[in-house]
Amino acid sequence: MFHPDFTTLRIFLAVYNLGNISKAAARENIASSAISKRLHSLESELGAPLFYRHSRGVEATPAGEMLAKHAATLFSQINRMTSEMSTFASGVAGQVRIHAHTSAIVQYMPSQIASFTKAYPSVKIILVEDSSLGVLQATIEGLTDIGILAGNMAFPDALDVFDYRHDKLVVLVPAGHPLSTSGGVRFADTLGFDHVGLAVTSSLGTLLAGAADALSMTLKTCIEVKTFESAVRMVEAGLGITILPDGVLADKVGNDRVCAIPLLDEWSTRPHVICVRNDRQLTTAALFMLDHLRSVP
């Protein structure tokens, strides 16, 4: 008889959705060898192979497709049960799990969550910061109620996607930099200078790398950091220039060590979206939060 454990099923779903054991290992913060061992044990227990393995990664077998369907449904039901039973366990009227990328968390969500919790103080908010790809995968896998991420990516039919916000990218340069007196610059004009970049796996890093490729030019990243604040600090120290959303610089007004210059390329206005799975019934608390995110500034 098949006796699955939730950790193995979650890892299986990560491999299934990413199509690659190494990527799943990075996402789950576990060694690739440990994932392979769990998958082999799972296949032995089921008596059927779950993946075709090839040089580019893995592809689900019919048995793998069937297990993925049931596992996703199982996690969806467990998450719903956990949310609704929290009312009885702790007196909380509801719980909403949100996965969001950094741009949304820094620019928009603090005020929105504050106004929501003021209106609905008995609802518990669990907010997880992740890359846009991580948010997308968590939403697909039913690990979150609501996902907020960059809109410049492909979304599967299994998700309902709603407009959320738009931000504007700016070029941040040290005071006295050759670009500092410009009223606006195009991305191509920045490529002759050293950039302080975010990880290429971030939505912004992916966008900029793609824009450079489209110009058949090279993005010269001299320093790679993980946070907007770190990028600003590097520019303040004169170590390069960086491209950031204008909203993350709100508290930098009056900083005479840096200058923010509008980026003029059409793609520099970026959409952000909200996504939810269209095959699951959101709790009342999650529905209220979804409406709040879409309607309240």
UniProtKB/TrEMBL annotation:
Cellular component per GO, a single term: cytosol
Coiled coil stretches, renumbered: none
Keyword Transmembrane helix: no
Family: Belongs to the LysR transcriptional regulatory family.
Keyword DNA-binding carried by entry: yes
One Gene Ontology MF term: DNA binding
Cited InterPro entries: HTH-type_LysR_regulators, LysR_HTH_N, LysR_subst-bd, WH-like_DNA-bd_sf, WH_DNA-bd_sf
One Pfam family recorded for the sequence: LysR_substrate
CDD domains: PBP2_LTTR_like_1
Keyword annotations: DNA-binding, Transcription, Transcription regulation
Domain (HTH lysR-type) ranges: 4-61
Name recorded for this polypeptide: LysR family transcriptional regulator
The organism's place on the tree of life at top rank: Bacteria
